[in-house]
Design goal:
alpha+beta
Length: 167
């Protein structure tokens, strides 16, 4: 693609199959426990060179459903199996140079169940009240773009009393 100023840009990823077979979107989940608390996953991130709080998730393997992918990722990353998943939307990763998106779920009715994590993946978890996430966002302490996008979807859906029970 050439910009209006004549600069050539390389697309990172098309939304369709122009660069080969289209890859499925990565998946992320906002895990809500029976008390209405939300799980934050903290891990070292190379880009910003610091620990970043995010919602757990990861890539969808070819042929895997989004629901199967998020269940696998949650078991690998935070040792949880969600008996109930609610799809809440899709957000674009970067509209300027990619058509890739993130598939978002709310995960409830959680059971402790794990799979081996990816090599080098060390993730700490923290359960917090939704109001605490709002406070940390306002203070600038939570600044992951994906976390902010997913939280906006979660908050836009409206009353969350049903999330605690998963029903």
């Amino acid at each position: 693609m050439v910009t209006a100023g004549g600069a050539a840009l390389t697309w990172l990823r098309w939304a369709d199959g122009r660069e080969g077979p289209a890859r499925p979107d990565p998946v992320l989940a906002i895990c809500v426990d029976a008390d209405g608390r939300v799980l934050l996953a903290r891990q070292w991130c190379q880009g910003p060179q610091r620990v970043v709080a995010e919602f757990p998730g990861g890539n969808t393997d070819p042929g895997e459903t989004y629901e199967d992918a998020i269940r696998r990722e949650l078991m690998e990353e935070v040792g949880l199996f969600p008996h109930r998943l609610t799809a809440i939307g899709r957000t674009l990763i970067s509209t300027r140079r990619s058509g890739a998106g993130l598939r978002w779920f709310v995960a409830t009715d959680l059971e402790r169940r794990s799979l081996p994590s990816d090599p080098g993946e060390e993730i700490a978890v923290e359960w917090v009240r939704p109001e605490e996430i709002d406070r940390r966002i306002a203070a600038g302490d939570l600044d992951s773009g994906s976390l902010l996008a997913g939280w906006a979807l979660f908050r836009a859906i409206g009353p969350h009393a049903g999330w605690a029970s998963g029903r």
